[in-house]
Amino acid sequence: MTKQWEPLTDLQWAAISAFFDLQRKRKHELRTIMDAIFWLLRTGCQWRNLPPNFPHWQAVYYYFDRWKKADYFEHINATLNQLDRQQADREPLPSAASIDTQSVKLAPMIGEWRGLDANKKVNGRKRTFVVDTQGRLWVADVDAANRADGSLGKALVVAILWRVGERLEKMFGDQAYNGVFAKELDRWSIDFEKASRPESTQGFVPVAKRWVVERSIAWTNYFRRIVKDYEHTVSSSASWLYLANSQIMLQRIETYCQI
């Protein structure tokens, strides 16, 4: 994974350009707009401080908001996930996935969807990640941090099935999901396997199957826009998570083609 922003290459743009209407004449190239969005994601810059070499920040935000509401970022992310899986000689859709949450602080002066995670002592929001066995993000959701992991996961089961498809046979998660979430999975004939470290161990111990989702959560630290939640809406928060995974997938696509 590269640790700094780089503009989209011709190959990377070709992988996502089909989602955009490129026939219509515009003042700004959509490729430049996507470069600006990925730059914001990597650097954590405020919208109004977007450098002058990019289009005006209001133009970039207009497209971000429009594409977010049309679920473009989620669809692009899913397509890139499938392409990356095929390049790794796997089926396009996964048969197993892992779920976990991350509690992050919320920027001041934002009261919407805010809560206190008493266990982790975090006043902010809780992100739910659903990843495949190699860490690709398939479903992301953001809610108040005081919400229980199991109930958040239960609300996502239909979204998981819609995005991953009928190939899904097993979900991995920790003890927090061994309740209403596991029961909801059972209604759809999906097995739930609790993956947790032995009680006798101390310190950090990689847990089989579950460490993958924890690694995916750790990858968010490479994107300054999402190390903390700065968004007024949870839909924007989730969109940045999809964009972060998409950027990782685009870098892998470039690497595969160079081999």
UniProtKB/TrEMBL annotation:
InterPro entries: IS402-like_dom, Transposase_11. Residues 95-240 form the Transposase IS4-like domain. Coiled coil: none annotated. Residues 8-76 form the Insertion element IS402-like domain. This is Transposase. It comes from Spirosoma utsteinense. The lineage of its organism: Bacteria, Pseudomonadati, Bacteroidota, Cytophagia, Cytophagales.
